[in-house]
Amino acid sequence: MTLNLGWAPFRPKLPVLILSFCLLTQLASAQWTSVSGTGIYYNGGKVGIGTANPFTALHVSGTGNIQTTIEATDDGYAQLVLQGLGKAWIWGKRPSYEGDGLRLYYWNGTQYLGPYMTVSTSGALSINTTDPKGYQLAVNGSAICTKMVVKTQANWPDYVFKNGYQLPSLDSVAEYIQKHQHLSELPSADSVASNGLDLGNNQATLLKKIEELTLYAIGQQKQINEQRAVIEKQQAQIGSLQATNARLDELEVQLNKLKAALAK
User: Fold this and answer.
1) Pairing mode, if any, of strands 78-84 and 58-60?
2) What pTM does this model have?
3) Which residues are CB-neighbours of 87 under 8 A, at least 6 positions away?
């Protein structure tokens, strides 16, 4: 199978083929062979570069900063292909006319799928899309994580609890909702559908609304406490008046008895 993502496969010239054939013939005829002066070894079906005891099919060893290079000498594609049973993952550098970025494709034996991942030269990472739309991370699909921290430069809304903050009246809040069908300072459903959601700014605005709701609740509780005190005072006054009325009723009964006795 020839893996091709829009570019022609490498076709070596005849002298290179002859040399490669001779080398492979030599390697195949020996259990352990070294190519003199190159540091390349063949041992038990494995190739070692810089080591006579390769651990894997291709083992590169050395000291210091070890690098393995796959180079396209023209403005083409440089790729790493991981293949098995006719299927493969292809991780390759794009040519300059495609932005010089990295892309990950999958060959399912019939067709190329992807790119599943793209890294631009500015470090932007795109998953299931090639357009990060100006962001450093773009995911076309769902995502899950165990923790996410968003650092925002917005003014965190603890100022709501400071003296002098003008808390909107509930009447004005009700009027805004009636007119716009959403809370002020929060995006509408149409805006989110068109532009997405700024998590940091949205969380700050939601916190502001929660803090305002807390102030409304505190204010309402204060009114409830004041009304309760008034009611308790009125109930005490009513109780006193009822006791006075009962005493007057008792005096009236006694007076009526006295009047009846005097009339005899």
Assistant:
1) unpaired
2) 0.57
3) 106, 107, 108, 109
- Residue 219, number of CB atoms within 10 A of its CB: 12
H or E element in which residue 217 lies:
helix 199-263
What is the three-class DSSP state of 49?
strand
Do the beta carbons of residue 72 and residue 78 sit within 8 Å? yes
Contact predicate 103/117, CB 8 Å: yes
φ/ψ region of 183 (left if φ > 0, alpha if ψ in -120 to 50, else beta) reads beta
Digit-coded pLDDT (tens) for 77-102: 999 999 999 999 999 999 999 999 99
- 3-state secondary structure (DSSP) of residue 1: coil
Please list, in sequence order, all residues whose beta carbon lies within 8 angstroms of the beta carbon of residue 210, skipping any fewer than 6 positions away: none
